[in-house]
Structure formats: C-alpha cells, structure tokens
TrEMBL record:
GO cellular component, one term: membrane
Name of the protein in its database record: Tetraspanin 13b
Main location: membrane
Key word ATP-binding present: no
Transmembrane segments: 12-33, 45-66, 73-92, 167-187
Bilayer topology annotation: Multi-pass membrane protein
Name of one Pfam family that matches: Tetraspanin
Subcellular location field: Membrane
Source organism per UniProt: Champsocephalus esox
Domain of life assignment: Eukaryota
UniProtKB keywords: Membrane, Transmembrane, Transmembrane helix
C-alpha cells in the first residue's frame, strides 16, 4: 500500500501529537503521585507541573483533531502556539546548558529562600539543614538534626545541580526539535489537498 505525501504528513502529525498527549498525561500523573505520597509538599511545584501538563494536553489535542479532520483554523492556531512553545523551550534549555557554577549558586539560593515547603522537602530527602548554615531557633526535618551532625544543604544540592541542569537541558532540546518538526509538518500538511475529497485537483 503506497503512502502519498498527504497521508504520510497526516499520520506523522497524528503520531507526534499522540506522543505529546502521552507526555502530558505522564507529567500530570507524576506530579499527582509525588503529591499523594508526600514526596513533594510544595503546592506551587505540583501545580506548575500539572498546569504545564494540562496545557500540553490541550495543545496536543487540538493538533490531533486538526490533523484528523484537516481543519485549517485548528492547524493554524496549533502551529502558532507550538512555535511559541518551541521558542520558550529552546531558550530555557539553552540557558540550562550554558549556566555556570556561580549562576547556579545564585538561582539555588533564590529558589531556597522563596519556599519554606521546598526547604523542608530538600532537608528531609538530602538529610541536611539550612542552605549555607542553619538559622538560630529553627527546626529541621532531617534525620541528622537531633544529633546536630547535619551539613549545609548547599553543598549537597550543588553536587547534583549540574547533572540535573544538563539532563533537563538535553531533554528540553530534544523536545524542542520535535516541536519545530511539528510546526513544519503542520505547515506542509495545511497546504496539501485531500485527494479523496477532491481528486480532480490533481488532474
């Protein structure tokens, strides 16, 4: 069975959006699982991940419906939104890969000071207290706190921060290239005619 340009573009676009739907559901599921089992207590972090997952789900759903029905308006808005997502994601991924150690330290300290719940999560999971030193008259959820043997969390966070940023940046770059592929496929697919709907157009 032969595969025309129209059919291949349609199937590739549908497959790409099915992948995005699966990724969005995975993001929502992981965030909900982490919150349910108490792995992450920060509502802002969980809410942010779920919001991104829901946004991706609706964008992928619009792209999937537009591809299946060859709906020009849906495909146009899908292409514009996907291109904007590509720009943001490519920029953030490049920043993650280009950030140096001093900038990492500054961002980590800002993030630490902005959320008390995140502090408790990190202290409990990494068994440390305080960012650079434990503040006076402050309790700590780490197992080492009763023995007064805790190290500052900054050192332990910095051990993994570089690896995490490189991993996130690499994954982000990979998906950003799939997004620009989706933009190209959508543009190409919108300008093609359905041979089953109007065969005479190709005569």
């Amino acid at each position: 069975m032969s595969c025309s340009g129209y059919t291949c573009s349609k199937h590739c676009l549908c497959a790409l959006n099915i992948l995005y739907v699966m990724v969005s559901l995975l993001m929502i599921g992981i965030a909900a699982w982490g919150k349910w089992f108490g792995l992450v207590s920060s509502f802002q972090v969980v809410g942010g991940i779920i919001a991104v997952g829901v946004f991706l789900f609706f964008v992928a759903g619009a792209g999937l419906i537009g591809a299946m029905k060859h709906h020009q308006v849906l495909l146009f808005f899908y292409m514009i939104v996907l291109f904007m997502v590509f720009i943001v994601q490519f920029s953030v991924s490049s920043a993650c890969l280009a950030i140096n150690r001093e900038q990492q330290d500054q961002l980590l300290e800002v993030g630490w000071n902005n959320s008390r719940s995140t502090q408790r999560d990190v202290e409990k999971s990494l068994n440390c207290c305080g960012f650079r030193q434990l503040e006076p008259n402050r309790t700590c959820d780490a197992a080492c706190f009763p023995n007064h043997s805790c190290l500052p969390c900054a050192e332990k966070i910095q051990e993994h921060a570089g690896e995490v940023l490189r991993f996130v940046g690499g994954i982000g770059l990979f998906f950003s290239f799939t997004e620009i592929l989706g933009v190209w496929l959508t543009y190409h697919y919108r300008n093609q005619k359905d041979p089953r709907a109007n065969p005479s157009a190709f005569l």
